[in-house]
Amino acid sequence: MNAVVQCLSNTDLLAEYLGLERYKLDLSRRRINGIVKSEDTQHARGEVTEQLASLVRALWTLEYIPQLSVEFKSIVSKYGSQFRGNSQHDALEFLLWLLDRVHEDVNLSSCSNNNNKTKAPGKVRVPSPSTVTQSH
Fold first, then answer.
1. 35 DSSP assignment
2. By CB distance 3.0 to 4.6 Å, which of 50, 58, 81, 99 could disulfide with 64?
């Protein structure tokens, strides 16, 4: 987990998106099947992204405390039962799970007419895990 978080926190666009809290706009207007869902009905979603963002922000602002890692691990275990306990896990498996979770949380590509080649100015598109692995 540590290696994945370190890599993601050093990925400029993602670190900026999380560290500067740009993801919050996407969390507040999540779309499911093209219909905007309110924060009330989907309050549990976004916890993984929020914790990852807190961790990345703390790493970049030199405000890191070990409790942040404990909280991140707790949230990951809550939503990813395969990551419960202290066993070693495959880093790629965790990376794909985490990227998928962030993608689901911010749900940037839910509109069926959305084209991957078009980007709104100033927005960071979080790639789906399948897109990441296709290039390798």
1. E
2. 58
Q: What is the pLDDT of residue 47?
A: 93
E strand segments, the chain: 31-32, 35-36
SS3 41: coil
Q: Residue 26 belongs to what domain range?
A: 2-134
Supply the pLDDT for residue 91.
93
- Contact predicate 126/103, CB 8 Å: yes
Mean pLDDT of 22-45: 63
Domain count, the chain: 1
Determine the distance from the C-alpha atom of residue 113 to the mean position of all C-alpha atoms in its chain, rounded to a whole number: 23
Query: 72 with 52: CB under 8 angstroms?
Result: yes
In this predicted model, which residue has the larger pLDDT, 111 or 2? 2
Cα–Cα distance, 80 to 15 (Å, whole number): 22
Q: What is the pLDDT of residues 4-15, one digit of tens each?
A: 999 999 999 999
DSSP category for residue 82: G
pTM: 0.70
Instruction: Specify the CATH number for the domain of residue 111.
Output: 3.90.70.10
